[in-house]
Specification:
about 325 residues, alpha+beta, five-stranded antiparallel beta sheet, 11 helices, about 50% helix, elongated
Amino acid sequence: MIKDIPSGSEFDSAAKAQFDFAWDIVISFLQLLEEAKDSIEVEDEDEKAFWETTRQRILTSLIITQQGVELALKGKLVAVSPYLLISGNHSDWPKDIDGSGVSYSEFRAIDAQDLIRVHDTVHETKLDSGFSELFEKLRKLRNKAMHTVDKDLNVSAQDVVLILLEVHEHLYGNENWIVTRRDFLNNSPATHLYLVNDHLEGLVVKEFLTVFNFLKPAETNRFFHINRRQRLYLCPECKYESDKYESIEPRYAVLRPNEPNSENLFCFVCDSLHPIERMNCLEEDCPGNVVSEEYGFCCTCGVIQGVHKSLNRDRPTACVFNMSVQF
């Protein structure tokens, strides 16, 4: 008897935990450098030395990412049948010595290089060629990082972020990576110890503002559905949440639809629409005419527009609601 047979969802949870761990490593370095540049003058030589000291840790994040991809693929196979992962001759299988059964984990699993071929054999929808090429590239990079000390093997933190976004898109389709990352932060070890997480939304804002700022326009369009050719505005909710954590300007929201009379801003971090009023900003030097109905500030400069009518409505605004929950 084979016991302790895992489910596809268990493999998925393990895969996403690996992705989150890898993300945590690289995003911390990107933000550390960004914060340093905001406070001191960082010379090119200093930045180069900084990245050199992070090199092995970034390679580790790449290895973890590859492990996550393999777990995700195994989850897709197990969803069809857990026995698709078992490899080797029957004569080599572990024996049930005491009659209590043999744990599934004791069996040899199929090789990583065979995962895509087996997937495409048993699933009606095959993995596309782009993912297959990325998987093979990632597998070879992982093998080099694991088995050599090649000084020419250079993977940047930005590379790992892009790989994570791409593999997550291929493996989980329309599932939002930002939601997954937010869930992990809300269930982090520190949260369970201190039971305080009102700053976490601000942390999510800061992370994805960092990512948004270094991505190319085609990449922000692909992964976040934001056209950088449009005028970018402060997201009202992200600004409110980030002000609890750190004063930053989450300028990545766009009008949707992109029309002169549009009444909503779309934010990819919130993954939602925010109602706006088209009125001229009261700040003398601000040309903005997009004001948040929920929070009463100009989405161009961030200045509160006096006693805003949204604060006097019978229905609670998002701002008032969040405050009531907090206390």
